[in-house]
From TrEMBL:
<keyword id="KW-0456">Lyase</keyword>
<comment type="similarity">
    <text>Belongs to the type-II 3-dehydroquinase family.</text>
</comment>
<dbReference type="GO" id="GO:0019631">
    <property type="term" value="P:quinate catabolic process"/>
</dbReference>
<feature type="binding site">
    <location>
        <position position="87"/>
    </location>
    <ligand>
        <name>substrate</name>
    </ligand>
</feature>
<dbReference type="Pfam" id="PF01220">
    <property type="entry name" value="DHquinase_II"/>
</dbReference>
<feature type="binding site">
    <location>
        <position position="74"/>
    </location>
    <ligand>
        <name>substrate</name>
    </ligand>
</feature>
<comment type="subunit">
    <text>Homododecamer.</text>
</comment>
<comment type="function">
    <text>Catalyzes a trans-dehydration via an enolate intermediate.</text>
</comment>
<keyword id="KW-0028">Amino-acid biosynthesis</keyword>
<feature type="active site" description="Proton donor">
    <location>
        <position position="100"/>
    </location>
</feature>
<dbReference type="GO" id="GO:0009073">
    <property type="term" value="P:aromatic amino acid family biosynthetic process"/>
</dbReference>
<feature type="binding site">
    <location>
        <position position="111"/>
    </location>
    <ligand>
        <name>substrate</name>
    </ligand>
</feature>
<feature type="binding site">
    <location>
        <position position="80"/>
    </location>
    <ligand>
        <name>substrate</name>
    </ligand>
</feature>
<comment type="pathway">
    <text>Metabolic intermediate biosynthesis; chorismate biosynthesis; chorismate from D-erythrose 4-phosphate and phosphoenolpyruvate: step 3/7.</text>
</comment>
<feature type="site" description="Transition state stabilizer">
    <location>
        <position position="17"/>
    </location>
</feature>
<dbReference type="GO" id="GO:0003855">
    <property type="term" value="F:3-dehydroquinate dehydratase activity"/>
</dbReference>
<dbReference type="InterPro" id="IPR001874">
    <property type="entry name" value="DHquinase_II"/>
</dbReference>
Amino acid sequence: SSFAVLNGPNLNLLGQREPQTYGSTTLAAIEASCAEVASELGCELSWFQSNHEGALVDEIQRLAADGTDGVVINAAAYTHTSVAIRDALATLDAPFVEVHISNVHAREGFRAHSYLSDLASGVIVGCGVQGYELAVRRLVALTSTP
Ligand code: DQA
């Protein structure tokens, strides 16, 4: 199977950005640990980060056209604002898992609402950067035939 991990705005700064909230692990290090999990489980993972809403929409459309088997998405702040990313995800035939590093329910009220969650197969919140790996494992479980 072939899965994609998508990251939204400011997640390129993981490791330096608000470390008390997001920890000290960089996005490159998360990518490396997810790559290990993927090779352990025998699946392929693509990786994409953008600070631009339209670029994320373009990438989701590309994945839908290529017939991805599943998507892990941390849309970051766009989670709370983007009907466009929601609509793009709605076109996917494959499942997606929404990830947030921090516990968005323990923060400002505006972070509690997601435009994505009701369409998601699952949501992983507040598990730190381990959430990405958990999401990859979940996609493998969801998409492997019994
Ligand atoms: C985040 C939570 C969002 O509210 C925030 O805008 C982010 C990161 C998280 O991973 O905890 O940029 O998605």
